[in-house]
Backbone:
């Protein structure tokens, strides 16, 4: 396990990334991609994966060229303290809203699937209490150990469900694919671009992550793994249910999992999915709270933000219950607003700052070269 002197390794950080994207993937990808790209939507993660190759290379430039600094400190070094603080505040605000969005989605799924007669707010309170007490308050090191365990369970569980679904796939539901589907596939890739952008907030902790010189190789491997597994998951969903049914379903992955039968008699595999959902949501929400506390520490220049854990947890509760009146508003906000805000904040901004860094570096080198030429003359 990559944990040393109060820090975690880049592998551990990326394992955490893999587990936190599982819940958004099975929750939103099926309906979003089928609405955007119809029967070609299952290929959308491949498009997103290609874009993320470039993104990982740009993020690698920032991280490797500024060892020992957090991502926000890197921003500060490149664009100045004021702009970095503004970006940090925007990040904090949006991630707080995102925590509320994920909490509300979690409670809605648990209520709709497992306990329809229980008030949703109760699930939010219980989850926040467990996360704050056992993951956030103990700190990143303890939480990272839990993420490694949850990642193992999530990978094995999702692989099992996918394997059981493969024999049910009807290839005719996946075809035909033509050149006319390219633009819809690009539109459908927005949900993957948004979901995978959680990798940027994770590296707000880059000053507490060791082995960043290996980030490019490990990051590209993680993206390749997620792109391939997501494509396989979507292919099984499309192959079993078809794009039309997926586009109309609130829980497309659950819809397909409920159809699994082993030996024509054994059912109930939706219980496995429910546990995987909960595990991934626990990792996602706890990691986002840890990141927000890190942002608070940076913005207000305080030594220890963990003292605000319970206060911030209460704020997250009110963010969740005030976000939307019903599941329709929640889905509309997630698909039409949150998806694109994530892309702008956590994909476009890091790329833009990497461009600024590259331009400044070239300008400095050109100036030094010019000065040296003048001295020699």
Residues:
């Amino acid at each position: 396990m990559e944990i040393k002197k109060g820090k975690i390794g880049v592998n551990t950080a990326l394992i955490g990334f893999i587990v936190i994207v599982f819940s958004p993937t099975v929750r939103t990808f099926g309906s979003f991609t089928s609405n955007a790209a119809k029967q070609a939507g299952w290929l959308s993660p491949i498009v997103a994966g290609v874009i993320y190759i470039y993104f990982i290379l740009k993020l690698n430039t920032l991280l490797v060229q500024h060892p020992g600094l957090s991502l926000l400190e890197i921003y500060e070094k490149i664009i100045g303290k004021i702009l970095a603080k503004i970006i940090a505040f925007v990040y904090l605000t949006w991630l707080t809203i995102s925590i509320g969005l994920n909490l509300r989605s979690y409670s809605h799924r648990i209520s709709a699937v497992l306990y329809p007669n229980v008030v949703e707010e109760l699930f939010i309170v219980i989850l926040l209490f467990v996360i704050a007490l056992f993951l956030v308050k103990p700190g990143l090191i303890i939480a990272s150990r839990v993420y490694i365990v949850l990642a193992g369970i999530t990978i094995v569980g999702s692989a099992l469900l996918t394997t059981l679904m493969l024999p049910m796939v009807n290839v005719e539901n996946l075809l035909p694919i033509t050149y006319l589907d390219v633009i819809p596939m690009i539109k459908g890739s927005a949900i993957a671009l948004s979901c995978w952008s959680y990798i940027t907030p994770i590296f707000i902790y880059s000053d507490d992550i060791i082995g960043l010189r290996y980030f490019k190789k490990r990051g590209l491997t993680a993206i390749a793994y997620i792109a391939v597994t997501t494509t396989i998951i979507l292919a099984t969903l499309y192959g079993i249910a078809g794009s039309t049914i997926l586009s109309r379903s609130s829980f497309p992955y659950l819809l397909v999992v409920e159809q699994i039968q082993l030996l024509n008699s054994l059912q109930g595999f939706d219980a496995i999915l429910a546990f995987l959902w909960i595990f991934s949501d626990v990792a996602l929400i706890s990691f986002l709270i840890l990141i927000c506390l890190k942002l608070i520490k940076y913005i207000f220049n305080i030594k220890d933000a963990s003292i605000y854990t319970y206060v911030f947890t209460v704020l997250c509760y009110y963010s969740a219950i005030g976000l939307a009146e019903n599941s329709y508003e929640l889905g509309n906000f997630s698909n039409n607003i949150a998806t694109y805000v994530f892309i702008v904040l956590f994909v476009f901004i890091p790329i833009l700052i990497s461009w600024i860094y590259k331009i400044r570096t070239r300008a400095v080198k050109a100036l030094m070269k010019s000065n040296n030429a003048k001295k020699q003359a």
About this structure: The beta strands are 3-4, 7-9, 209-210.
